[in-house]
Amino acid sequence: MTTVSQYAKNIAVIGAGYWGKNLVRNFHELGSLHTICDSETRTLLDFSNKYPGLNTA
């Protein structure tokens, strides 16, 4: 059986707005989140502070 840990750090969320913030939270809790992309600089800064060590673009 394949587990999430075998695919850890492989997901990028593009668009971290209304639904994206929920995806970011859930993928981060699973240990699968690698990068967050958003057109709003403020949104990226907020996520960088909340989830240190994640890539933002």
TrEMBL record:
Gene3D superfamilies: NAD(P)-binding Rossmann-like Domain. This is Gfo/Idh/MocA-like oxidoreductase N-terminal domain-containing protein.
